Each structure stands twice: as C-alpha cells, then as structure tokens.
Amino acid sequence: MNSLRDIVQFSPELRGLETQATYGLQGQDAAQPLASSRWDWSEVRKILLVRLRSIGDTVLATPSIVALKRFLPRVQVDILVEDWVAPLLDHHPHIDNVIVTERTGLLNRVVVARELRAGKYDVVYNLHGGTTSTFLTRATGARYRVGFKTYQYAQLHNHQAPSPLLLWGQQKTHSVEQQLALLGWTGVPVTDRPRTVLGVAPQAAAGINQRLAEIGLEDRKIALVHPAAAFATKQWATENFARVVEHLAERGFAPIAVAAPHEQAVLDSLVESASVPVVTFDLSLPEVTALAARAQVFVGNDSGIAHIASAAGTPSVVVFGSSNRAHWRPWNSAPAEVVFEELPCQPCHGYFCEKFAQPECILRVPVSRVTAAIDRVLPQKGTAST
Length: 386
Prior knowledge:
Elements: H1 4-8, H2 12-23, E1 46-50, H3 55-59, H4 62-71, E2 76-82, E3 97-101, H5 106-119, E4 123-126, H6 131-139, E5 144-148, E6 159-161, H7 164-168, H8 175-184, H9 202-214, E7 221-226, H10 238-250, E8 253-258, H11 264-273, E9 279-281, H12 285-294, E10 297-301, H13 304-311, E11 316-319, H14 325-328, E12 336-339, H15 360-363, H16 367-377
C-alpha cells in the first residue's frame, strides 16, 4: 500500500491533509507557554490576530493560528490581513474568519475599524506593530490588546510584552518565533514552535491539475521555480536560474516558473536563456499554493512564494542575498536549504546596496552551490519515501 507521502505527490488535497495532521492540532502536551497566563482564558470567546503587509508575513503568521486553535479549540480565531493576500488563507484549517483591509485609503480603514469594534473581540494580538495595525488594534476596543513594548505606539496596547529575544532566551529569532513570543507571553503553549500551514483550495487544485493535463505534465515530476524578487538585492541572476532548470530537467523534473504579472520579463528571460523547455504560469495565490503542493521541489529567491512552498510541505532551496537568514528562512519540517554568499554587510535593509556598485551578496552565489543543495533536499535514488 502506498504511503501518505507517496499519495500526496500527486494530490494537493491530500498533502494539505498531511500538513494539517502533522502540524495542526498536535503538540499541545509537549508545548509550554513562555510566561504565566495574564488573564482567565475560560472567559475568552473571540480572538483576533492583526498581521498586515506581505505574502511572507501572512504565511509566517500561521503558526500563531495553530498555537491558538489547539490551545482553545472552541474559541473563534480570526485574522486581519490586507485584501490582496487574503486569498492565501482560503481553506485554512484553523481560521474561522479572514477580515480584510485595503492597502491604502482612510475611508476603508474607518469602515474596517467599525467592523472590528462590532466584532467584540476579547483578545487582540498585534503581530505587525506598524502604525495602521496598531491603531486598528486599538479600535477593536478589546479587553486585552497585546503588543511588544518596542512598538512605536506601544501605549495603545494594555498588555506590552518584553523583547522576544528575552522571552526565548536567544540572540536571534525567526519571524515565526517573534510572533509566537507574543502569544507565549500571555500563557499560550508555543515552545514546540509550530510549523507554517496553508490549506489547498479544491477549485485551485482542480485548475492546476487541468493545466498540467493540457500540456502533458499530469504524470511528471514538477519543479516549481520562482526567479523574481522584490528588490535587486534579493534577485539571483536569471541566467543562473536557467542553469538550475537545466539541472532539474536532467534529474527528470518539468520546470514550471511563476512570477507576478509585472515580473513577466523575468520569466521571458528565463525561457530564452534555458536550453530546456520551461513552462510559465500566471497564477492566483490559491493556485500557487496548489501548484506548490503538487510540486516535488521548489527553487527560488527569498520571497513570499518560497514561504508558500514551505508551508505546502515542498522540499525547498532558497537563494538569499541581503535578507536576514535567521529571521526569514523557510519554516517547515520538509527538507530545505538556504544558499548564500556571506559578506560582512549582511543582513541589510535590502532596498539598495550601500557597499558595492551591484548587490554582490546575491550575485556572487554560484550555480554549483544551488544545484548541490537541490540534490541534497531531494530523495536519493533508491531511497523509499516515508
């Protein structure tokens, strides 16, 4: 009989179930809080997490959702995110409601603030700390509003947590650990550090399966490739990705590259530079998740797509440039490696390079190191899946 891992190689829906079973509501007995409870949890009925901004930020908030839902399975757990990333949380197994706000617009923020106030939340965790998220947290009127003391408007929270470094007793923390620290400080068990989790929408999975069938890839091993990035300091050369997809093709993978619509030129350059066929897809976020769940390996720059792949349980190789690797590395139990060229100026803000004419941190990463990492995260020939 095939193992569950064998089955999910070809079924995004089942891989979602595997992810939920492995990283979902288990671990309660082993996990501990980081401090004593700050209120009577038996009186809590509704909790809101506030996590604005990007794709990666949204994915990396999901371990906090897992921690809350397993601690309080009968309590309503909602999350506030920006509208453009909200589809990423479709069919998430542990979220009751996704509330959205637009990126900009004062009128919209007022409408959202009223909606949050009407929600009558007992506890609100501000996982972001920016101005907008802090004022929306305050607007809820929740009895317990939790943020870090270091937030700019920390006084708008009536529960202010100390540094996550202090709470964890570490010199560095991952973004996931930083957010979990806020929960752990209030008595939520978090010490097992839950993994990222995303649900796979059945409609998106069906759409991906249909697309693959139309181009004759329904029975092929898939490599998901993301050659684009938000900044030049995070974008490995497209010519290097061309050599990588050639390596993947030699190992029997059909490379499929994805990017945002405004990054189409990067995909076109990859197709032109590679000596093997590269399929390119323009996908919605739920479809990216479904494709990641269907793929057997992901290779790309440090980006939100990399975090989606990790949350889908896909073995991953991520090329890092200016980013803080300790804070933004993949956060799942699937095999994963980060590849980088260490320089004294790393990490940095990443908007531009202050030390060199070009961002050498990302440009100096050799292809050989990335292909070697790919070979390490993939099952070796003759090794049975478990």
